Amino acid sequence: MNGAALIGLLFSPLAGLMAFLITYQEYSRHFPDRSVAIRRALEAGIVAAIFFGALSLGLALLLPRMLG
């Protein structure tokens, strides 16, 4: 369980960073003001990191109970 949670917590910020970069690239095309694009991309990155972190922790807790 600890290994799965650790892997998930290590890769969750990476998922957030990738979400930020992808979202920023798309929003920078649509918003002339750079601060709006950065703010919205940062929100998307934070949400993605939280989502994947919670998902990995949930799976790390539930899978051992379901399999054993």
One letter per element, helices H and strands E, the order comes to: HH
Q: Could you tell me the strand content as a percent range?
A: under 5%
Briefly note the structural class of the backbone: mainly alpha
Low-confidence stretches: none
Count of helices?
A: 2
Please provide the count of β strands.
0
Q: Assign an overall shape.
A: rod-shaped
Count of the domains: 1
Largest sheet composition: none
- In whole angstroms, the N-to-C terminal distance is 12 Å
Helix content: over 70%
Rg: 15 Å
- Could you report the average pLDDT, rounded to the nearest whole number? 91
Assembly type of the chains comes to single chain
Helix and strand topology:
Layout: H1 2-30, H2 34-67
Helix pairs in contact: 1-2
Name the descriptors.
single chain, 68 residues, mainly alpha, 2 helices, rod-shaped
Short description:
The chain is mainly alpha-helical.
Question: What does this entry look like structurally?
Answer:
There is one protein chain. The protein contains two helices and no strands. It has helices at residues 2-30, 34-67. Helix 1 runs antiparallel to helix 2.
